[in-house]
Amino acid sequence: MILGVSIYEVLTLSTIIFFIGVFGFTTRKNLIAMLMSVELILNSAAINFVIINKYLYPEQLEGGIFSLFIIAIAAAETALALAIIINLYRLVMSLKTDELETMKY
Questions:
Q1: What span, in angstroms and rounded, lies between the C-alpha atoms of 57 and 72?
Q2: What is the tens place of the pLDDT at every residue in 45-89?
Q3: What is the mean pLDDT of residues 79-104?
C-alpha cells in the first residue's frame, strides 16, 4: 500500500483511463480530441509502469525511468502531431477526419 492506496485501486484507475482513451480515439472525429485520447492511453501505461515497479521492486526506479521515456515520447509525438494538424488545417480549413480525403492524393 502506497500512501493508503492499494495497487488494485491504482490499476483500476489506470484501466479506466486507458479505456476512456480508447473510446475517445475510436469515436471522435476531431483530430485534437483524438490526440488527447492517445495521450490518455500513454499516461495510463506510465501509471502502470510506476505502480507495478513500486509493488514488485520498491527500492528500484525502473518504472519511473520508463515513465520518463513515455513522457518524452508523448511530448515528441504531440509536437509532431500538432505540426501535422496545423498544416492540414491550413490546407483543408477543417479538423474533422471525414473532410480530410485530400490526404489520399
A1: 23
A2: 999 999 999 999 989 999 999 999 999 999 999 999 999 989 888
A3: 82
C-alpha cell belonging to residue 61: 526506479
Structural domains in the chain plus CATH codes:
7-104 (1.10.287.3510)
CB-count burial class (<10 Å; 0-12, 13-18, 19+) for 50: buried
Contacts of 16 (CB under 8 A, 6+ apart): none
In the prediction, which pLDDT does 2 show? 60
User: Which grid cell sits at 72?
Assistant: 518524452
DSSP states of 25-44? HHH--BHHHHHHHHHHHHHH
Residues 6+ apart with CB under 8 A from 94: 100
